[in-house]
Amino acid sequence: MPLLPTPSELAARARADLRVGLPVVLGAGGPGVAILAAETLQPDRLAAIRDVGTPVLAITDRRAETLKARAYDGDLARLHLPADADAEWVRCLADPADDLLMPMKGPLVAEREGDAGLHRLAIALIKSAQLLPAAIVVPLADTDGFAHEHGLTQLPPEATHEDLVLHHALTSVAAARLPMDAAESGRLHIFRPDNGGTEHYAIEIGRPDRDAPVLARLHSACFTGDVLGSLKCDCGPQLRTALAEMGRVGAGVLLYLNQEGRGIGLANKMRAYSLQDQGFDTVEANHRLGFEDDERDFRLGADILRRMGFSAVRLMTNNPRKVAMMEHEGLTVSERVPLVTPTNRHNAHYLDVKAKKSGHLL
Fold this sequence. Notes:
With about 350 residues, the chain is of the alpha/beta class.
């Protein structure tokens, strides 16, 4: 096996670097860019990167729409940094926390010339690090020399979006019997992606027949709902209801996917909650942060089920996207099993938005 890291392994290094505020180089053997995450940008590093070249701030079209900036590149905008822009100015453009207190930002001038491919890759990488999707990007004439001189992680030009996102080949690393309240005949399986990403879990109830459709649920991790009993969402009740039903019928598989906050991470979910306190709904809050409605990758669930030997499911879900994904990935959905849980005064609006804007069948 070669000792040189693969692009996906380098991406794992790059995510860690960006989270602590280090630059990452995109490109090799010639021109490219250096990038910094806006969220972790430090004043001294902004000053240093200005000495290298003329930086721009790359933001998603969702964030650009909130800021009334032109997204000439379609899914992103490249904003010029004023000469006096400091790290706090960059943070305010990336983070909507104070948008209502300071609605006037700019003037914002967007770049419309040149290729935005590496800027797009930078945002994908930063999203996969669960940081605010905004990047300081500066052009480099000699990527190899710059990366070597400063000891920086460097992603080669052949690195693709698939190398940067967290869905990669999964390996079963451990499994053991786990008696639970829902069923004493429980078993917990741990699956680990090959790129250093977060592990995911399969909770198997009983001994489901691999030749028949299995009662299955794809459940995204929700610390606030699953652990703290939050009343703002329906995640905790859905988790417990699904496990209880599998226990009642004696067999089933619940996939616990670590994609908190619809894939944006707990910190960004709390940012979205703060925006909801300002009057925005779930979808609007995600957009103001620069994310899509839903950043999750449900292919993980299909991959795990296949590795466990299942080819058909009775899927417990209210989300048609999950049904479509399973069928697209080659698994048969013999039945969609509705998952009905109580509504309370704290989550009624949230559930209404899920139905009207996200297409959930509630």
